[in-house]
Amino acid sequence: MTVAPHFQFQNNTLHAEQVPLSKLAEEFGTPLYVYSRQALRDAWESYRVAGQDRELLVCYGMKANSNLAILQEFARLGTGFDIVSGGELARVIAAGGDPGKVVFSGVGKQVWEIEAALKAGVKCFNVESEDELERVAQVAERMNVKAPVSLRVNPDVDAGTHPYISTGLKDNKFGVPIDQAPRIYARAQQLPSLNIVGVDCHIGSQITEVSPYLDALDKLIKLILALKEQGVNLIHLDLGGGLGIRYTDETLVTPTQLLTEVFAALDKNGLGHLEIVLEPGRSMVGNAGVLLSRVEYLKHGETKNFAIIDAAMNDLIRPTLYDAWHSVEAVEPRPVTESTPRYDLVGPICESGDWLARDRQLELKQDDLLAIMSAGAYAFTMASQYNTRPRAAEILVDGDQAHVIRPRETLESLFATERLLP
Ligand code: LLP
C-alpha cells in the first residue's frame, strides 16, 4: 500500500490508475508529474458529502496546482476557486471556471488585479488590511460598481504546523488582528462602494487536528455576534483551507469530521444560516500526483550513499524549503534486505540543498524509476527553471488513458524572450 489510493502496485509495478508508470516514463520521459483524475474526483466528493444538506462552497485553493485541466475538472464538478493574484483569475477564466464562485485572497492586491476581479464579478475580496479596504473601495467607486468584501481576520491560533505554512498567528503578515475587526467593519459600513458579505480566516496548512479550527471558529463566532449588534449581517463564513494529507502515516481530519463540528457550533449560536466557504488546496490534489524520476548514478561513499536522480529541487522544492518528507516508491521494486544501502536522493543542481529525500533504504540500480509520492500539491506550481532546467511535463491519467496536460518545456523556450545586446 502506498500513501496514495490511486497509485498502487499491480504485478510489482506502480500504476497511476490503470497505467504502469514505467510506460509513461518511456513515452514522455522523466522527470514527469503524473496525476490521477479519479483522485481529484474523490477529493471533491469528500467535501461534497461533508457539506450535503448545508450551504457549502468549496473554493479550491488553486495555488496548490493550477494546471488548466485540473481547474477545468474541478470547475465541472462545481467548485469555486480561491485565488491570490490576477494571474490566477486569468487561469480560472481560461479553464471555464465561474468567477462568481471566486474568492480573492492575498495581502498585496494591486489596482489592476482589483479592477480585473471587479470586472469578472468575483464573489468576494478577502481583504487583509485597512489600506486594502480603502483601495478596493476607491477602485470600485471609480468603476461605479459595488465590491463584495469580507475581512480576513487573524484569530491568533497555533495551527501546529511548520512556521512557513502557519498563517494564523499574531506575528504573521496575514489578515487583521481580530480585536480590530469591529472597527474596520465599521469603516467599511461607511464606504458606499463596498458590500460587506462575510468574514474570513485561514490559519495554516497541513493541519492534522480539528482543534485549531475550532479555536478559530470560537473567536469568529464571537466576532460575528458582535458585528450583528453593530448592524453588520454577514452572509458567509470562510474558514480557509489547510486540511492535511497523508505523506507518511499521519492521522487525518476528514472534511466530514471538520464540518460536523463547525455546523454544530454555528447552530448552537443561532448562526446556522451562514454559508460556509472553504479554501482547500493540498487536500484536493496532494495525493492525486507523483513526481516520476529516473536514477542517473549511484554514488557509494564512506559515510553516505547518494542516488543522483533526474528530478531536483527545481521540480519539488518542499523537502529543502520545509524539511518536508515525501515517501518514495521504486516503480519496479526489488526486495529490501538487511544489506540494502540507505540513500540520499539528490538532484543534479549545484546546491547542497538539492535533495528530495534522505536516508531511504532502497535496492537501486542505475536507470531505475522512482515515484516521489504526494507531489500533486505545491510541486509544479513551485517549480522553477533553475540551472536552465526545462520544467517537466504534466500527465493526467484517466483509467487506462493518459492525457498530456502540459508538455515538457523546450530548451529554446527557456530563453526565447531574452535579448542579446546590440
Ligand atoms: N487559502 C489561503 C488564503 C491560503 O493562503 C492557502 C495556502 C490556502 C487557502 C490553501 O491551503 P491548503 O488547503 O493547501 O493547506 N507551499 C506550502 C504550502 C503553502 C500554503 C499557502 N497558503 C507547502 O508546500 O507546504
From TrEMBL:
Residues 55-285 form the Orn/DAP/Arg decarboxylase 2 N-terminal domain. Its EC number is 4.1.1.20. Keywords: Amino-acid biosynthesis, Decarboxylase, Lyase, Lysine biosynthesis, Pyridoxal phosphate. Residues 33-376 form the Orn/DAP/Arg decarboxylase 2 C-terminal domain. Homodimer. Belongs to the Orn/Lys/Arg decarboxylase class-II family. LysA subfamily. This is Diaminopimelate decarboxylase. It comes from Alcaligenes pakistanensis.
